[in-house]
Design goal:
Amidase signature (AS) enzymes; eleven-stranded mixed sheet; 16 helices; about 40% helix
Amino acid sequence: MSDLIRKTAAQLADALAAGETTSVEITQAHLDRIGQVDGAVHAFLHVDAEGALAQAAESDARRAAGGPSSALDGVPIAVKDVLATEGLPTTCGSKILEGWVPPYDATVVRRLRDAGMPILGKTNMDEFAMGSSTEHSAYGPTHNPWDLDRIPGGSGGGSAAAVAAFEAPLALGTDTGGSIRQPGAVTGTVGVKPTYGSVSRYGLVALANSLDQVGPVTRTVMDAALLHEVIGGHDPRDSTSITQSVPDLTDAVRRGATGDLTGVRVGVVKELGGEGYQDGVQARFQEAVDLMVGAGAEVVEVSCPTFVHALATYYLILPAEASSNLAKFDAMRYGLRVLPEGVQSPSAEDVMRATRDAGFGDEVKRRIILGTYALSSGYYDAYYGQAQKVRTLISRDFDAAFEKADVLISPTAPTTAFKLGEKLDDPIAMYLNDLATIPANLSGVPGISVPGGLADEDGLPVGVQILAPTMADDRVYRVGAALETLLADQWGGPLLDRAPSLNGAS
């Protein structure tokens, strides 16, 4: 196994700048790793070896000419299969888009290309990002590199697993209710949900327009900051894009990496803990709180009473928006088309019905039905309208909490990774995995999940979530970097160094 795959993105960038290696060597090392272990992990739906190596060669040529495009020029990356990629399949983990190749790039993908970052391929995901385990992919589940019998989180489990298995140094994910942070927690990786609107959504196949956000999946907080600075910023093609510039995130990481939190007010959210949270998760979280106190932070308990209604609110708003968004998959314009059996002259409605029945999985159908019902005449005000009112109250709870604290912290997920198949027949149990992450999406605030250690019960990763006010993304990076430093000192190195090896997996 090449040593290159064990290096962080920042280390790879430094090695490229120093002339110690080439982008072709780095990209080939990761492609070799994918060939070695992805048969067991199934992090990727499509690997573009030829394209990635061609992009790497172009990066090496630019560097030889003295003009790298960015700090990450030549560092390869994986992309969640919900983002449009010109010339590469984009399936959203669904049979209804099997084989679809977009004619354009999502803005964030274009920014990766402009930064000179070779794209290794597209990662597996729950169909149309609906799920918390990456078991709802039409192309089979992804496996957690820590234990191949367990889930890697969802919906972006493919991106998290690729980074955790050293198949890619960086990946892009999307976070609608925790789909970057929750996979980060259960795979021992770093996952960031930026402030809503600060990273372009143009070219992201929408699940819920008011909730979706693209963000970094990495192994360190610094790597996340470097990637965030590449993809962030205003995009006039995205109507939800905000005009404020992204703060200096790498500087925030450098300040935090000293481990000094003197003067930082940290709020522990009362409602995001306790009953329903695994003992090992709670124990590691309390250790993280104690380390922050020891580093000079002022820790206070804050209460956000309406957070207890966040899950119900989310599962009315998200299905309603999803049912509207997925109406465009009608068998008329692109994607799958199925003709109904036994119908001589099928109508458009007959074809649409047969196509959607064959192309959508059970979870997608469940949410479309729920969302359509919530938006229907006579029920809109009682369900969707009421949910939007509670959403406003959740945002007000955040505002009140941030008057008392600079950042809020909680466990990222209530449990460690569960067994594959364990919750497939119980949708409510599956939804509960997003208890701690959903409030941030409903309000638009930024959040990060940092590896918090291993639970005593099963030796699996635990995540610590850090939230900050809107456009204060630099705060989550500063505090996240400080916690990363404090925990690394305690562990004697990165958490992923303690993950079981996948050498020989097939």
